[in-house]
Fold Aspartate aminotransferase family protein.
Amino acid sequence: MSALPSGFIRTQDVLHEQLSGQRVRELELQYGNEELLYGLGVLGLSGPFSRVTPWELEDEHGVRRINASGYAAMPFGEMPPAITAFMHEFLTHNRAMGLPQQSSSPWRAALEANLVRLLARELPSHADSQVFFCSSGTEAIEGALKFAKAYRPRAKYAISFGSAYHGKTLGSLSLTPNPEYQDIFRPLVPGAVTSPYGDLDALKRVIRRLGPDTIYAVVVEPIQGEGGVNIPPAGFLSGLGEICRRHGIPVIADEIQTGLGRTGHWFESAAQGLDPDLITLAKPLGAGMTAVGATIVRAPIYKTMLGGLSSKRHSNTFGGGALAMAVGLKSLEYLIDNDLPTRSRELGEIGLSRLQALHRRFPQLLEAVRGQGLLLALQFRPMVGLPLPAMLREIVFEATAILALRELHLGGVMANLSLSSKRTVRLTPALDMPADVFATLMDRVEAFAQTHPNSRDLLLRTPPQVTTRLAAFAATKPKKRTPSDG
Ligand SMILES: Cc1ncc(COP(=O)(O)O)c(C=O)c1O
């Protein structure tokens, strides 16, 4: 046996929880994304958390929280028994190759066929569509952009929408119009144009101004998730589809967050009358256990990029790997067997009406609530009501949402910040969360609102040492941190 590097951590030590919470935080601060962990540490949210049930997590002190976080990538909660039992079976019995890059694979074949058949049931024009697998949402978007560009090679523009979120690799980042994420990386991929979300006339004007033949893709989220759960006006998506079809512009529906049941439908774009040419999927396919991304593409577009001798033009090492495909297959099967889109719609209706009641009771805390299925948003009234310069206003929005996130945590609810909407906190519980757990989750959100009927209370109830540290964190340049800082 060769010598281990000093301090090497054994798998068995991690598996048997030999690393204390304090040690985990120290290692993360020293070797990982230190600033993010530090910020979460100041808020008391950095964990590590352990699973109690698929829906409940506890910290090292045994304090429990219902998990409505996970950025919509935990469709069945933490380590769902149906998936882990199948993974045991897979690991015991599977004989198919692990990474079948240059050969066919039964797991990949089955998932390709199932995804296309599921889509074609909703949108029959996709009966002969084809799938390309990858390992994240942003990579699925990169693939979609390349497919569309290869199909219209002379076109130079891709249109996305205000407040969109498509990921953070360079292509998808170029279509995520958020200066906070984009600015330092300029120049980005050229030709990205932004049109206001939900405004069909504005889109028509942009297409007319650029010239339809110069556009290789319109990329749209059927409901914007990271943008704060923005539901477009009726007719926007179907109208968008009609304009693009008239001009032959490929439409990419980014269903990474909305797809496969989260919003109460298998494909939210189809439910809103859009028949896109490319569809990206990711989050729920991996069942919270592994990474699976997919780009589903109409055959003529697929074949242009990956036809004949060009079939290696787009590739990756891990996409289509046996474990990822097997988990993806099981995830899809579980969603179908339990009709989770319907369940998401039903639970979501209860959740949204409870949030609407809170909005009516506590307008000084909640500026708005939104939701569809189990994609629910609370938009907070800024803590400071005075007119402020734009930059300060952004800081106040963000601070309000961050303090709300902290208070929700303390009240036993893990929630998500929204990456492209500073004032919004989202709830994305598991689609199969039992009704009584979901009711407790909503009771806790209500208790949180009762304790903070006015958003100013968020500030007043936060211990001064937390606000001081947060302010110092926001105002100082990154430096080496220690756990005691957090
Ligand atoms: C709509 C949408 N597209 C793309 C992405 C990027 O996915 P990933 O984080 O897996 O790269 C996300 C992630 O939140 C998303 O919500």
About this structure: The longest strand covers residues 366-372. The chain is about 45% helix and 15% strand.
